[in-house]
Amino acid sequence: MVKETIIISNPTGLHTRPAKQVVAEAKKFESDITVYHQDKEANLKSLLKLMKLGISQNHSIELCCDGPDEEEALKHLTGFILSLEG
Q1: pLDDT beyond 70 at 4
Q2: pLDDT tens digits, residue range 22-44?
Q3: What are the catalytic residues?
Q4: What is the DSSP string of 32-77?
Q5: Into how many domains does the chain fold?
Q6: Domain hosting residue 30, numbered range
Q7: Which of 14, 42, 72, 81 is the most exposed place for a label (fewest CB within 10 A)?
């Protein structure tokens, strides 16, 4: 299992459109991917669960990947989330 904490820089946070993009990227990996925000957690491959976290700009999240491609998944998703724009 690998994990990393990042700060959301996207002005709209992880709301509908960017969240949909992140979920699509997460589904490309075999590993289980969980996102933690405050005292809540969600499967990053579920748009509904991700949306329920209410992640906004400047919020801190922790990504946790566990599985055969965990290192690649964490690196890719961290970079992808940090590069999101509006």
Answers
A1: yes
A2: 999 999 999 999 999 999 999 99
A3: 15
A4: EEEEEETTEEEETT-HHHHHHT---TT-EEEEEEESTTHHHHHHHH
A5: 1
A6: 2-83
A7: 72
